[in-house]
Design brief:
Order of helices and strands: EHHEEEEEHEEEHHHEE
Largest sheet: 5 strands, mixed
Number of helices: 6
Strand content: 15-25%
Shape: elongated
Number of strands: 11
C-alpha cells in the first residue's frame, strides 16, 4: 500500500516575486498550515520562526531542514535566487522516512542546477526604505535638569543648564539625541543572478 505525504510545494518564481531579506520570511502566507512569525528585525536576527505542527514540546519545535539532502540548521544561509523549489512534509509519514528528527515536520529545499544552453542573467531590482515607524519624543538634557530641580531643588545650577543647552562642555554636560544617532533610514539592495549552463558530453 502506497502512502502519500501531505506536501506543499513552492517554486522559485513564487519565492522571488516579493522583496524578502531571507528565505524564511518568503514562506510567510504562502503555505497553508505553516506558521511563520517574523523575527526581531535587528541585523543578523531578522530570520523568522517556522512552526509546522505548532508547539507540542518543551524543547525545540523547529522543523527538520534539508538542503539538497544535507541537514541544515537554518535556511537563511542560502540565497533565495539559488532555490529551485521548497517542499514541506507535514504528516506522520515524513517521520517514518527521516526518523525522530522529523517530529516537527520537514522542509526540503532543492537548489538550481546548471542547464544546457546560453548563459542567462536575471535581474530582480526594487527600491525601498526601512525606518522606525514610531519614536518616543525625549526631553533634552537641559529640560531634564529643569524637571529634576523641581523634585530636588539645587541639583543642577543655572550654569549646568546653560552648558547643556549651548554644548560648550559635550563630555561633562552632554546633550546627545541617541534616537537620532542610532536609528537611520536603511535602503534595500538589488540583486543580479547569473547562471552558467552545463555542457553535456555526447557519448
Amino acid at each position: 500500500q502506497r502512502q502519500m505525504c501531505i506536501r506543499d510545494r513552492l517554486d522559485s518564481k513564487e519565492l522571488t516575486s516579493r522583496p524578502i531579506s531571507n528565505v524564511s520570511s518568503g514562506l510567510q502566507g504562502m503555505m497553508p498550515g505553516v506558521t511563520v512569525t517574523s523575527g526581531q528585525g535587528r541585523p543578523g536576527q531578522d530570520g523568522s520562526t517556522i512552526r509546522i505542527r505548532g508547539v507540542g514540546t518543551l524543547n525545540s519545535a523547529s522543523p527538520y531542514i534539508l538542503i539538497d539532502g544535507i541537514e541544515s540548521g537554518s535556511m537563511n544561509d542560502i540565497d533565495p535566487n539559488d532555490i529551485e523549489s521548497i517542499s514541506v512534509l507535514k504528516d506522520a509519514s515524513s517521520a517514518a522516512i527521516y526518523g525522530s528528527k522529523a517530529s516537527n515536520g520537514v522542509i526540503l529545499i532543492t537548489t538550481k542546477r546548471g542547464k544546457t544552453g546560453a548563459p542567462r542573467i536575471s535581474y530582480n531590482g526594487y527600491v525601498g526604505a526601512s525606518k522606525a515607524t514610531s519614536m518616543i519624543d525625549r526631553v533634552s538634557s537641559a529640560d531634564y535638569a529643569r524637571l529634576w530641580n523641581r523634585f530636588e531643588p539645587g541639583r543642577y545650577s543655572d550654569e549646568d543648564i546653560r552648558m547643556f543647552e549651548d554644548g560648550s562642555d559635550p563630555y561633562g554636560h552632554p546633550n546627545t539625541d541617541w534616537n537620532d544617532e542610532a536609528y537611520r533610514t536603511g535602503l534595500l539592495l538589488s540583486l543580479i543572478h547569473i547562471s552558467e549552463p552545463t555542457r553535456q558530453a555526447e557519448i
